[in-house]
């Protein structure tokens, strides 16, 4: 545990597995990251790389069964004292008090994230009632109207009483953001909040989230597979692949100087507007079978710089390359020049 | 909401007209009529009946008139005087025959529906939230047995079992000493005692289905985003379960209210016969066999009408529960 006063959440070696009929999927397999107060962390990766599960584990809302957090620590620095969220029962009063009050979340599907049976206002007031007791009914309603106004919903005092199906997708996502902010959370997790929206609406929603993050002084965890969006939204970026962190760095560093072969491959797949038109590069190969446990680096089968005998034998540790950039790749081992054998013997010795 | 109900009631009128027409035609479809059937029976038992006598009877019962005219007469009686016609077989007005049985049938339907919901919905919720648990498998097993066992068989076995172990005969509606007694508290108690078994048997036959439907619907709903949202908000598990996914999962069950009645009328015939209860099921069966046309037609028509009304009620309930239905999907 660090003594840094600015850290809000410390995640160490989080492991979340799904026990399915076909086998065990290690959706999150040893992920570590920090989120600082008021800062934003972007998480990118292909679908199925464990981005969403990482976020859901932080709130302990992974559907269980089949999912289960089997290892690691998630230290929340609350006002009084730090709490390891993973040590709490998922449905305990302590955990439920953290949800939405400390961490809230907006989801990918604005069409389905509200229940169709109750008005928007009913569902927002419900959260306020739960976490900010002591307000009168009128105050809760006024707070909700204020929030709806803040997220740019026109005629908030009228639209508070409409049902979700009467709003467009963009409006619904705005209402969802209003609900997420209703209890002044310290961390907002945005799990691909614009994937289901069209591009113009997407730009508005991103703008809105960024403005509100500043206004409310919240930390933000922004999950997306859209590289451009993540770079816009984040101070720091974490690249995930098959449940593991490949590389983590400040946004500038990771864009100017990507280290991991996977990150580089991702960057090459971004279309360039200027200059000569070229065929877009793709990452060759397919994702490995998620039921199979990878002994070595999960990217081994698709990596252009792989070192057989090393990368497929041992899991690369996280190498601190600069004070703010870490990468999980044997290419950055100090002993790399000595060849795979030297690294292998060393990494066995240290582990 | 009121406009919705009014619109639905207006559309009932042509449906009810069609129902009366179809009921009448169905009853006319089998060859022959009450008189030809009686005469054939008399002849079979060796009594000579002359053609004159046959013609006289046909005229007496009004069976010589063309079908259309008889339909209009029948409908006139119903609409203007509330008179459903004469039962040849019982030699009584249809009204007095049905007045006893329809309330009893409705009562049994509604009570057994409520019983089956009280049992099935909590079990369905438990099964869905504890999918593949030991109890889920046990409930599934019992549910399938309930689905696969004919009600009349269960009725026979249980009636025999109760009689041999307690000496109480659960058959019929009243015990012998109350048969002709005026209605009293003791008689009511006796009737309720007799009703428990049929209610349970009839209710349980649909319980298996309702458990499966509830379980499947809820499993679908539990995966939806709004459930995760509610959980992320920090709601209590039981509270959010009842407020959000259960309310959605229950919709298809509510929409089945309408068809419970016809299913019951045909399903409980055997149970009613076995347990000796005077509901419309056995009455309709006999009326059809005997070609007692006004009785059979009126029974079919009244039950169909009640079914349509049941469907209307379930639609109104659905609209009350689900705003998407209430607002007709139009967004402003």
Architecture overview:
The complex is a heterodimer of chains A (351) and B (332). Chain A is of the alpha/beta class and 351 residues long. Chain A is 31% helix and 23% strand. Chain A is built from eleven helices and twelve strands. An eight-stranded mixed beta sheet of chain A has the order 6-7-8-3-9-10-12-11, with helices on both faces. The longest helix of chain A is centred in the middle third of the chain and has 18 residues. The radius of gyration of chain A is 22 Å and the shape is globular. The mean pLDDT of chain A is 85. With 332 residues, chain B is mainly α. Chain B has 16 helices and two strands. A two-stranded antiparallel sheet of chain B has the order 1-2. Chain B is globular, with a radius of gyration of 25 Å. Classes of the chains: A alpha/beta (351), B mainly alpha (332).
Task: Give the structure's gist in a few sentences.
The complex is a heterodimer of chains A (351) and B (332). Chain A has helices at residues 51-59, 93-98, 120-131, 137-150, 156-159, 169-181, 199-216, 227-233, 251-256, 261-268, 340-350; strands at 7-20, 23-36, 40-44, 67-77, 82-84, 103-106, 187-191, 219-224, 236-241, 244-250, 319-322, 325-327.
Strand order of the largest sheet of chain B: 1-2
On the 0 to 100 scale, the average pLDDT of chain B is: 82
Q: Write down how many β-strands of chain A occur, each being a DSSP E stretch of 2 or more residues.
A: 12
Largest sheet geometry of chain B? 2 strands, antiparallel
Please specify the SSE layout and strand pairing.
The complex is a heterodimer of chains A (351) and B (332).
Chain A: E1 7-20, E2 23-36, E3 40-44, H1 51-59, E4 67-77, E5 82-84, H2 93-98, E6 103-106, H3 120-131, H4 137-150, H5 156-159, H6 169-181, E7 187-191, H7 199-216, E8 219-224, H8 227-233, E9 236-241, E10 244-250, H9 251-256, H10 261-268, E11 319-322, E12 325-327, H11 340-350
Helix pairs in contact in A: 3-4, 4-6, 6-7
Chain B: H1 2-28, H2 34-44, H3 51-60, H4 67-81, E1 86-87, E2 92-93, H5 94-129, H6 134-148, H7 151-166, H8 185-222, H9 225-232, H10 237-243, H11 245-249, H12 251-254, H13 257-275, H14 280-289, H15 293-321, H16 323-326
Antiparallel strand pairs in B: 1-2
Helix pairs in contact in B: 1-15, 5-6, 5-8, 5-13, 6-8, 7-8, 7-13, 13-14, 13-15, 14-15
């Amino acid at each position: 545990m660090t003594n840094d006063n600015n850290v809000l959440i410390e995640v160490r070696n989080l492991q979340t597995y799904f026990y399915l009929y076909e086998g065990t999927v290690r959706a999150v397999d040893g992920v570590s990251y920090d989120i600082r107060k008021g800062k934003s962390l972007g998480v990118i990766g292909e679908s199925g790389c464990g981005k969403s599960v990482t976020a859901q584990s932080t709130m302990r809302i992974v559907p269980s069964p089949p999912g289960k957090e089997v290892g690691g620590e998630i230290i929340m620095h609350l006002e009084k004292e730090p709490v390891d969220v993973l040590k709490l029962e998922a449905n305990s009063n302590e955990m439920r008090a953290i949800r939405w009050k400390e961490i809230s979340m907006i989801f990918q599907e604005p069409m389905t994230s509200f229940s169709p049976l109750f008005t928007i206002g009913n569902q927002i007031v419900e959260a306020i009632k739960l976490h900010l007791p002591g307000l009168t009914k009128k105050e809760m309603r006024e707070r909700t109207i204020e929030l709806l106004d803040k997220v740019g919903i026109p005629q908030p005092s009228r639209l508070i009483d409409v049902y979700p199906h009467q709003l467009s997708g963009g409006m619904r996502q705005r209402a969802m953001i209003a609900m997420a902010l209703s209890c002044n959370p310290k961390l907002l997790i945005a799990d691909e909040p614009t994937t289901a929206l069209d591009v113009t609406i997407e730009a508005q929603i991103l703008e809105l989230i960024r403005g509100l993050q500043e206004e409310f002084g919240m930390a933000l965890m922004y999950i997306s597979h859209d590289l451009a969006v993540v770079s816009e939204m984040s101070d720091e970026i974490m690249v995930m692949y098959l449940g593991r962190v490949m590389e983590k760095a400040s946004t500038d560093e990771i864009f100017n100087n990507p280290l991991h072969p996977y990150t580089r491959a991702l960057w090459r797949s971004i279309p360039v507007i200027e200059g000569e038109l070229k065929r877009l590069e793709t990452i060759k190969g397919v994702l490995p079978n998620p039921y199979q446990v990878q002994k070595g680096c999960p990217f081994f089968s698709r990596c252009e710089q792989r070192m057989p005998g090393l990368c497929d034998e041992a899991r690369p540790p996280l190498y601190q390359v600069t004070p703010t950039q870490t990468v999980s790749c044997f290419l950055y081992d100090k002993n790399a020049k000595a060849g795979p054998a030297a690294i292998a013997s060393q990494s066995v010795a240290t582990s | 909401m009121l406009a919705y109900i009014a619109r639905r009631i207006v559309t009932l009128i042509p449906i009810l007209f069609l129902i009366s027409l179809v009921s009448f035609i169905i009853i006319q479809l089998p060859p022959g009529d009450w008189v030809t059937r009686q005469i054939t029976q008399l002849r079979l038992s060796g009594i000579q009946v002359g053609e004159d006598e046959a013609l006289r009877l046909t005229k007496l019962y009004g069976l010589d008139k063309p079908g259309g005219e008889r339909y209009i007469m029948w409908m006139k009686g119903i609409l203007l005087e509330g008179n459903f016609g004469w039962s040849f077989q019982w030699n009584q007005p249809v009204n007095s025959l049905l007045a006893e049985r329809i309330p009893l049938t409705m009562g049994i339907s509604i009570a057994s529906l409520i019983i089956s919901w009280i049992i099935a919905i909590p079990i369905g919720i438990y099964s869905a939230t504890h999918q593949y648990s030991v109890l889920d498998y046990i409930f599934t097993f019992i549910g399938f047995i309930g689905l696969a066992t004919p009600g009349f068989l269960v009725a026979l076995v249980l009636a025999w079992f109760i009689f041999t172990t307690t000496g109480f005969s659960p058959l019929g509606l009243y015990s012998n000493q109350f048969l002709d007694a005026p209605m009293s508290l003791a008689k009511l108690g006796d009737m309720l005692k007799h009703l428990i078994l049929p209610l349970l048997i009839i209710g349980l036959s649909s319980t298996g289905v309702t458990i499966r439907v509830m379980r499947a619907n809820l499993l679908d709903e539990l995966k939806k985003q709004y459930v995760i949202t509610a959980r992320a908000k920090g709601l209590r598990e039981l509270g959010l379960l009842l407020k959000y996914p259960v309310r959605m999962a229950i919709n298809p069950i509510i929409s089945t209210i309408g068809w419970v009645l016809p299913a019951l009328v045909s399903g409980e015939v055997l149970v009613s016969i076995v347990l000796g209860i005077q509901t419309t099921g056995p009455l309709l069966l006999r009326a059809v066999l005997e070609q007692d046309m006004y009785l059979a037609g009126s029974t079919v028509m009244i039950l169909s009408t009640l079914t349509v009304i049941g469907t209307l009620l379930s639609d109104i309930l659905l609209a009350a529960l689900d705003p998407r239905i209430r607002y007709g999907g139009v967004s402003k």
